[in-house]
Amino acid sequence: MKALITGITGQDGAYLAKLLLNNGYEVYGTFRRTSQLHLERLKFLGVDDKVQFVPLELLEFTNIHRAIEQIQPDEIYNLGAQSFVGLSFEVPVFTADVTALGPLRLLEAARAVNNKIKFYQASSSEMFGKAQSSPQNESTPFYPRSPYAASKLFAHWMAVNYRESYGMFVCSGILFNHESPLRGLEFVTRKITNSVARIKSGLQKELRIGNLESSRDWGYAREYVEAMHLMLQQSAPNDYVVATGETHTVRQFVESAFRKVGINVAWSGQEVNEVGKDETTGKTVVRVDPQFFRPAEVDYLIGDYAKAQRDLGWRPKTNFQDLVGLMVEHDLSIVMKNA
User: Fold this and answer.
1) Portion of the chain with pLDDT greater than 70, in percent
2) Is 74 exposed, middle or buried (0-12, 13-18, 19+ CB in 10 A)?
3) For residue range 249-308, what is the model confidence (pLDDT) as tens digits?
4) What are the start-end ranges of the H helices in 23-128?
5) pTM above 0.90, yes or no
C-alpha cells in the first residue's frame, strides 16, 4: 500500500506517517519547494528516514497531477492547509487558495489519474463556528466564523460532491481540537504549556493570552490519526466527527497546566484586564492581552463521536488532564535539556 500525505511535517502528518509505516505502508510526504523542510516532528518519532519526500504545491494543479501520476498512491491524506485561524483574518485570500482550492485541486487530480484512489479530507470543528446546537455531530448545521473555517467548509462540501458525483471513496474527518507535545508553539495549547514550563524554570515572567472563556473539545492527536486511517478502511466512504465529548475553557487549560508544576492561579480583574497570580508568591503569571482576541470568536464547541464509535470502533482514550500533563512534561524536559 502507498499513501501520500500532504502536511506530513505537521503534528497530524507526523503521527499519521508513523502509524502507516507501522502498518507496512510506503509513505510519501509532500513539501513546498519554496519552504524549508522541517523534519523535527518526524525525527522525534523516529521516522524521518523512512518517508519518501515529494515536492508538491497545493496552489499548482499541474504539479499535483504529476505527483499523483508518478506515485500512484492507494490513499491520499490531505492534511496540508493554512491552518492558523487567527492568521486567516490577515491573509483571507491566501487561506482560501490553499485551504479551500488546494483540496479541490487534489480531488480533481486524483479523479483524473485514478478515481479509485481513496481520499481523506481534514475537515474541522471550526466549521460549526457559532454552533447551532450542542453537542455537534455530522448533522449539525455549519456556521463558520473565520476565513479558515469558511475555507475548510468549501473543501468539505467539495469532498462530498466528488464522492456523490463521481463515486470516489472520499471521507472527511470533522476533527475537534486535538493536541500533543508535537503541537506548534503558535497554537494556544502549546503556547500555554511551553510558557508554564518556562515560567516554572524562571525563563519567562508571564503568559499573555486572549479569550479565557472559549470552550473547546480537546483530544490527543496521536489517537485522532487512528480515526483517519480507519475511515479509509471501511467498505463505504462517509464523514465522521472525531472528538472526546467533553469541553473545557481556555481558563481551565491554563489552570490545569500551572497545577502540573505546582502553581495555583488566582484571578483578578475582568475580561481584557484580567490577570492570574501565583497564589503562593502573589506574582502575576497570566495576563489577558486584547491582541490575541479574534474579530469573530467561536465560543463553545463539543463533539458527539457516536457515529465514529459505532462504525469505526474508535473512541478517545486520553482524558483532558492527562493530555495537559503530557504536554507540560514534554515542555519541561525541553527546558531542562536546554538549560
Assistant:
1) 99
2) middle
3) 999 999 999 999 999 999 998 878 899 999 999 999 999 998 888 888 888 999 999 999
4) 40-44, 61-71, 85-88, 92-95, 101-113
5) yes
Instruction: Sketch the domain layout of the chain as residue ranges.
Output: 2-178+218-242, 185-216+248-299+319-338
- CATH code: domain 185-216+248-299+319-338 is 3.90.25.10
CA distance 89 to 43: 32
C-alpha cell at 306: 457516536
User: Which tens digit of pLDDT belongs to each residue from 130-157?
Assistant: 999 999 999 999 999 999 999 999 999 9
Helix pair angle (61-71, 101-113), 10° resolution: 40
Spatial distance between the Cα atoms of 56 and 40, rounded to a whole number of angstroms: 20
Q: Is the pLDDT of residue 35 over 90?
A: no
Whole-number Å distance between alpha carbons of 82 and 32: 13
Q: Identify the CATH number of the domain defined by range 2-178+218-242.
A: 3.40.50.720
Q: Which helix (H) or strand (E) holds 175?
A: strand 170-175
Please state, in angstroms and rounded to a whole number, the distance separating the CA atoms of residues 111 and 154. Answer: 18
Angle at 193 between CA 191 and CA 197, to 5 degrees: 115
Measured CA to CA, the distance from residue 295 to residue 22 in angstroms comes to 42
User: What Å distances lie between residue 51 and 10, 13, 32, 81, CA to CA?
Assistant: 14, 11, 15, 20
Q: Three cell numbers at 180?
A: 500533543
Q: Which amino acid is at 211?
A: N
